[in-house]
Amino acid sequence: MSYQVLARKWRPRNFSSLVGQEHVVRALTHALSSQRLHHAYLFTGTRGVGKTTIARILAKSLNCETGVTATPCGTCSSCLEIDSGRFVDLLEVDAATNTRVDEMRQLLENAIYAPTRGRYKVYVIDEVHMLSNSAFNAMLKTLEEPPDHVKFILATTDPQKIPVTVLSRCLQFNLKQMPPLAITTHLAHILQAEGVKFVLPALALIARSAAGSMRDALSLLDQAIAHGAGEVEEGQVRAMLGTVDLDYLYSILESVQSGDTGELTRIAADMAVRSLSFGAALQELAALLTRLQIEQLVSGSIDEEDPDRSRLLGLADQLTPEYVQLAYQIVIQGRAELPLAPDEYAGFLMTVLRLHAFRPESVADIVSSVESGIRQNVRVQIPKAVSAPAEHTIEKAMVVPPANRSLRSEGANWHEMVAALQINGLARELAQNCELRELSESECILRISPAQGHLQMKPAPEKLRQALSDYLGRAIVLRFELAQTDSETPAATVGRERFQRQEQAIASIEKDLFVRGVIESCGASLVESSIKPIE
């Protein structure tokens, strides 16, 4: 007997064996059990998620010789013929090759005749969005009021191209992409039944490469079995798929954290020697950073059986959540820029070096920097008991801040301070959209509304902190509160004043005698958007 590929051999024959579409199975099972049968169903979703498979199971449920049921027997002649594709009353049409109106009319003319073998005549139209507009129009009347013995099952990967007149006549079910864990579990079940040796990490690689399609996963599994001479090993699957060993990616992040640029260049060179895909490497690195961020924000999200759990937790502790977000942006931007690079190796190397260049300093460096700034801005007091020349005292002391910039209380005028700060660009936008909450000798607390929270993107906060420190003449630690502001921010003030000037300009034009005369005599109208106040 000839070999049957896994995708066909393990195609689900009933609803209970279907994987990953529980919401659709539940609805159809309840409808069949209660005999609430619609005349037209539409299944949408990406390739390989089970649209045609569910259509065939539904056809068996409608025509099983035991009666209309959610659990067809699978052994009667109708069930067996449907499984083998020989059931005369199941008409499967590929709309991609039967797009013309004449073909659709010929198909529908036979709908009036009673089924030959089964209880219902079932029309399964795959890729229905490929039909022409004329063909859709031809089927509308039959689709809306078909004979009692006819059921339509439509399937498509692109429901946006289906006319709303057709959509409104169907029960629509959106099939989801299969989660990687569900695919991995199903593949393991199949290999155990087939007696094929495997390791779970290899199946996880196949599941990720399948991108939510169970059919693609089974096709890749067939290829992996052939590639591994009857076994499914991780190394062989990686070689087959061209995927990057995760050890490279962990090593990159660990080297970034430690600041080892030599190791970063060595890793990139090693990947180039092995002819690994740098685009795939950046894609996998973005996925790894996503897992790190989830663990940082939702502790305990990493499976305890994950073989990389310790390395993941270590990186999640060592890298700040803010840096993980920045690193994610750098990686996906680097992947988008690969076609623009001199070559993929150069693009990848520059991306990982960018991760290093923008890495946060260690906690010790930050503390040392803050302490150094405080020492430089505090005047050294020489005890009177110590005899020292005046020149020595001056050398040890810094210039005292000007009187008008000495200690400023919580009542400091933030609007005046922002106007005097030597900043521009995003840092100025950040300052103008903040409200001063507290200002002490060493700390400044600003409040910014959630709608403007994106202005805190680096390096704007650091530039604002440095400008404030220069303005006040002392080191300042800058903190932000994300909440609705209680008072008017400088940006709001500017907006209000601009609106007032605009209103005044419009009112001035409206009162102008010449303008009023033109409006009254010529029936003209005033275009307010064309009026600009004189700054």
Number of helices: 24
Strand content: 5-15%
Spatial order of the strands in the main sheet? 2-3-4-1-5
The chain-level structural class is: alpha/beta
Major β-sheet annotation: 5 strands, parallel
Q: Estimate the helix proportion, in percent.
A: 40-55%
Shape: flat
The CA-CA distance between the termini, in Å, is: 88 Å
By DSSP, the count of extended strands is: 10
Q: What does this protein look like?
A:
The chain is of the alpha/beta class. The strands form 3 sheets. A 5-stranded parallel β-sheet has the order 2-3-4-1-5, covered by helices on one side. It has a 3-stranded mixed β-sheet with strand order 8-9-10. A two-stranded parallel sheet has the order 6-7. The chain has helices at residues 6-9, 22-33, 51-63, 77-84, 101-109, 133-144, 164-167, 180-194, 200-210, 214-227, 234-241, 246-258, 261-273, 278-297, 309-318, 321-337, 344-357, 363-376, 390-396, 414-420, 425-432, 460-472, 490-511, 513-522, and strands at residues 40-44, 90-94, 121-126, 150-156, 171-174, 197-198, 231-232, 434-439, 443-448, 477-482. The protein is built from 24 helices and 10 strands.
